[in-house]
Design goal:
CATH topology of the largest domain: TIM Barrel
Shape: globular
CATH architecture of the largest domain: Alpha-Beta Barrel
Strand content: 25-35%
CATH superfamily of the largest domain: Glycosidases
Length: 450
Amino acid sequence: MMRFALRWLCLGLFAAAPLAAQSANAVDLKPSPQQVRWQDLEFGVIVHFGTNTFLNREWGDGTASPSVFNPTHADPEQWLAAAKAAGARYVVLVAKHHDGFCLWPTKQTDYSVAASPWRGGKGDLVRLTADAAHKLGLGFGVYLSPWDRHDPRYKDPAAYDRYYLAQLSELSSHYGNLVELWLDGAGSEGRTYNFEKIIETLRTYQPNTLVFADMGLFEYGDIRWVGNEDGVIPYENWNVIDRHGFLRWRPVEADTPLHQRHWFWHPNDEASLKSVDALLTIYEQTVGRGGQLMLGIAPDNRGLLPDADVARLRAFGQALRARYAHNLALAHLTTDANTDAALDGNADTFWSAPAGSHSATLEADFPHPVTFDRTLSMEWLNDGQNIEKYAIEIWSGNGWKPVVEGYAIGHKKIDAFPPVTSTRVRLHILSSAHHAHIREFQIFNTGSAH
């Protein structure tokens, strides 16, 4: 995974590359339509499966024989059905990890499934996974490691760039639409790749694919790494980032494995499975902080997701849906169409603050007192991320009382607090760069500890 930052990879690219956003204000930047759609996916899985699976390794060194790769029941549809039960909406398959072994029959090297005994060398894990994703209605993407510990061409940057581009062309032209391309900088300290040509090649075949990378791949990346593998966004989350005075809209993706610190499958490893409570916390610290959750899953040496993993994913999905199943805001007293648009449970409609305003309130009134311990707010980001400070407040009988205060809302913000009760609840936008738009303001009583 992203053990090392991509800043080492890109030092030669930016000196002569113009960036239009150099003098813009962060609040004036807006996402592309592709980024808006991607942020609405919210939750994906990344699948690690390869020679490491059969050798009880996390990091391969490129010397494993293709003969070790021989799953007896490889079934990507089983993996992805479990992921979908958890709530995932897209999948990224590690098509080539750092060991260089390829899960599709690439024409660029014999170090692939074509040289393995699996399916007599006729198998294609990328095809099977892409087909399963499309069948289940999930977005599909690929991880193609820039670092390659097997191929001898890696020692020759120009030759390896040609090799990498040829593999990228195969993946981006034969497996349908790709929602995301993962570029992982592990092992690449001191190495400069031809990222300009990489992105040019990708865009030739996949103009709508978003590129995930560290901050270092600044000019061409569309999504940024959170900076840890814990499944937590530990900072105030703004979608626009600044690098040496240049600004880009780069939403966060936070990756973490289903097992503690294990991306690949290991035998007798059930004890490392994260609990349902831990997964709920991870969700609220990623999706609930305006980012994307990327959960790592790993098939075993049969080619199946272990029963314990399937059960944990299903239990997580059930708990997540139960926690956010009953939106109390739907019972609000109707006031006007603008307010109703944020309280209707439909993220395709939105409330707008008065034009030209820099503060506003969005209020939900109820016929009877409601008790709640969480709110969920979603900003309409097509016009940029504008809310700079806000408070959740309740009417106490003789005035408004703040329950919680925060700063960035962004795509989605979940606020948790001790239970409170009132007949009137409001989202008080204390400061916004431009007049704010809210897709959803939802209210929940989860009965959870805080």
